[in-house]
Fold Aldehyde dehydrogenase.
Amino acid sequence: MARVFEAADASNLVTELRRSFDSGVTRGYEWRVNQLKKLLIICDNHEPEIVAALHDDLGKPELESSVYEVALLRNSIKLALKQLKDWMAPDKAKTSLTTFPSSAEIISEPLGVVLVISAWNYPFLLSIDPVIGAISAGNAVVLKPSELSPASSSLLLKLIEQYLDPSAVRVVEGSVAETTLLLDQKWDKIFYTGSSKIARIIMTAAAKHLTPVVLELGGKSPVVIDSDTNLKVTIKRIIQGKWGCNNGQACVSPDYILTTKEFAPKVIDELKQELVAFYGKNPMESKDLSHIVNTNHFDRLSKMLEEKEVSEKIIHGGEKDREKLKIAPTILLDVPLDSLIMNEEIFGPLLPIFTLNNLEESFDVIRSRPKPLAAYLFTQNQKLKERFAMTVSAGGIVVNDIAVHLAVHSLPFGGVGESGMGSYHGKFSFDAFSHKKAVLYKSFFGDSAIRYAPYSRGKLRLLKALVNSNLVEVFKVLLGFK
Ligand SMILES: NC(=O)c1ccc[n+]([C@@H]2O[C@H](COP(=O)([O-])OP(=O)(O)OC[C@H]3O[C@@H](n4cnc5c(N)ncnc54)[C@H](O)[C@@H]3O)[C@@H](O)[C@H]2O)c1
C-alpha cells in the first residue's frame, strides 16, 4: 500500500525543490532543454501506454488520445525547444529623457517553485502542457494530476519519475486531502485547471501567501448559428467539437446552441442526420465516443436530464446506461432558461438548442450570463463576424469552427471573469511562469544636481519639463527664458 502523504511530506517536498531552485540548476538553458527533451521522449516512446491509460479512465478513442493529447503536447514541446533561446533573451526597452543617459531591458526571471494542479478530462495535455511552461521558464515544479483519472495519474507519476530531474520536477498523486496539504505550502505560482467552484478554494489558499494564480476554468460556451451559413460543414464541426472531443467533457465544448426559431428545424434535421452518420444508429455501442468519467458525473448529468420540464424537451438521444457510464448524444429543444441544464456547465454529451426571434437576441443571452471560456459563431456575414468578435466577452472566440483556437500557439488560451484568469500556450506559457523584471542601467556620467536638494523654482521647472519629455521647455529653462 502506498504511504500516506502527510503535512511533513508536503513541507519537505517544497523545501527540497526550493533548495534545487536556489542552487540555480533550473535556470540554465541546458537544464531546461534537457528536461523538455525528456518530455518529448515520453511522448515518442510511451504513446501506446498513454492511449491505454486514457482508455481505462475515459474510454477515450485512440484517435482523440493520439491527436488531442500526445500530438498537441509534442507540438508544444517542439515549439518550446525551438523558441527557448529567444524567449529567454532579455528584451531591450526604451528609456526616456528623465533617466538620460541610460539603457534598459526586461529580464524574464523564473518565479521559483510552482504548483500545477490539473483536471481529469485531458489528463496528459492539461498536466504536461503547463509543466512545459514552468520548465521553459526555469522553475522547479510539482504536478498534482486529478484523482478522477487514476490510470493517467499513476502513469504520469511513473514516467516523470523515470525521465525527469527529481530534484526539481515531481508528481504528487492524490485528491482533496493531498491537494489541501500542498496548498498550505508557500508556492511562487499556482496553475490550476478545473472548476470555478474549486478555483475559489485555490485562490483563498494562495491569498494567504500572496501567491499569484493562473486559473484555467470552464463555463457555458455558446454556439450561435446564423441562417447565412454552410449548414453541412457547421453541423459536422459542432458534432466533432462536442461529442468528438471526449464526449462533451471538454472545457471548450459547445454548451448550448442559439439560433432563430425559423432556422432551428434545419439545424435539428442536419444534426440528427449527421449524428447517425458519425456514430451509427446505436451510438451507445460506438467505439468513437468516450464514456462519462464516473458515476458521480453520470448522476450529475442524469439529474440535469431528468429535471421536470427538461426531459420532455429531448428531441434526439436520451439513452443512458449507468453500468457502462454511457450517455448517447442528446439534443434538447427550448428547455426553460431557469433549468439546471441552462445554468450549470454541462460538461457531457447533452446539447440544448435555444431558439430566438432574431439572432440579435443571442448577444443579450450571452451578455446576461457569466463570461464563458469560448464563444462560437457560424456565419458567412462579415459584419456579424466582426461585431461578435468585438462585443462578445469570452476567453476566446472562434468563427466557423469549434475549439481549434487552442491548437494555435500564437494565441493565448485562458478565460475571463468566471471562466478564469491568466493564460498559457506557446510563449504565453513561458510568460505565465516568469517574472518580467525591469532593469535600468545608469552610468555615473552626466550627474546633474537638479533633482538634489536644496530645491528651487528653476529645478522644479526643469524636472517637470524632463519628466514630460518637453525638449522646448527644457531648453527654455536652461537658456533662462521665462
Ligand atoms: N480551462 C481549461 O483549460 C480547462 C480544462 C479542463 C477542464 N476545465 C474545467 O474543469 C472543470 C472540470 O474539471 P474537474 O471536475 O477535474 O475539476 P475539479 O475542480 O473537480 O478538479 C480539478 C483539480 O482540483 C482538485 N480538487 C478537487 N477538489 C479540491 C478541493 N476541495 N481542494 C483542493 N483541490 C481540489 C482535484 O484533485 C483536481 O486535481 C470544468 O469546469 C471544466 O470546464 C478547464
